[in-house]
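Reading a protein record of the kind used here takes little practice once its layout is understood. The reader may check this reading against the record printed directly beneath this paragraph.
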Amino acid sequence: MVLNKFFINVLIRITLIALSCVALGIILQHLDRGYYFTLAGIIFLIVLQTWLMVNQVNKTNADLEKFFSSVQDHDTSVRFPENAMNSSFKKLHDRMNNLNTVIQNVKIENERTSHFLQSVVDHVDIGLLSFDMNGSIGIYNRVAKRYLNVQQPWQLSSFKTINDEMFKIIHTIKPGQEILHKMNIDNLLQSILIKATELTYESNVIKLVSFQDITNELDKKELDSWQRLVRVLTHEIMNSVSPITSLTSVISGYFKKKDDEIPVPLEKIDRQIVSKTLSGLNTIEETGKGLLDFVDKFRSLTSLPKPNLTKFTIGNLFRKCKILMESNIPNNIKIIASVYPDDIILVADYAQVEQVLINLIKNASEAFSNKNSGTIHLKAFYGDGGILIQVEDNGIGISNDIIEDIFVPFYTTKENGSGIGLSLSKQIMQNHYGTISVNSAPKKGAKFTLKFPL
């Protein structure tokens, strides 16, 4: 509507100027009759109409330029007079003032939202730090300040002089990776879980790093793990020590009189007593060897070498594991391998990862005791911010009452099992900054998932 009125106003002025020019032409043709005052009046009208039209266009342009400049400079305080004599200017000013008010309200709402989000970010008990590829810091909340001990940094390099170790972690941590870091905060040693993710905001790649104090959770989990381990160790040790104690008491009884500590005379020690004594000593020896073997297995869990990282394709790893295991499992069990995409490259210790897979395949093959046939499916794909390897079977599954204990050292439900395979696998994955998890239900098979960070 405002543009229409402006167009009509300009059109009227152009029409009047054109008519004045026509009149001027007519007067000039009859100038000999003495129409000098009329000529002067028409020239004055032409000049006046031209000036008024140019002035109106210039004023409109000036107002629009002032309005757009204020919008560009985020200045919403500019107001235009709404009592202009020209109705088109009055409505134009009214529209621009209304638009300015809308922009101002949006700006105020954005500031309120920004303050609200900042309050939420400062309120959470997790430290948050974001920065772009140039190292410019965006989000930096209250908890992050406490952990990093830098009040208001503008660049990521600000942390280098204060805490070089933390700077290296923040700078090198990969998206999806988790790092457990010990820090001395307020004279207390705390366990901080550091995680990172990448976001894209207005074509800029932003890295968001979080810091979470999991000291209490780790202490609770560690205590629970120790309780489970002690329970298993107590069971295993008592199974060995109890027979030794009983046999020692029995053998001791062969060589002393009842109800006292007086030795039996040598002439009363016959071949039968000697034979029973040797048999008991042999049993004690075998039990002692079993206990030493148990200690050796325990030592193997605590002296696992650090991973020797190399690059290799998971497809080749699967092919080798399949060849190795197909000759060691029943013929009625089939191993299927699938990798998507087929060129996934893993950076890890090849021998240790192979050991984990062989152990999982072996366990899966033993889950088909009551089935005529079965399938073990090896899968590899990208997911959940990392590389996932799964070993899935359609066997008898794992019951809910034991699934929480399967990773505890020496816990086993097998008659001749050692109970260190899964606990060793878990330690190998932890040394690779990865995880191992299981999803299972009775009679529905089991699925073990290995997650490696990218």
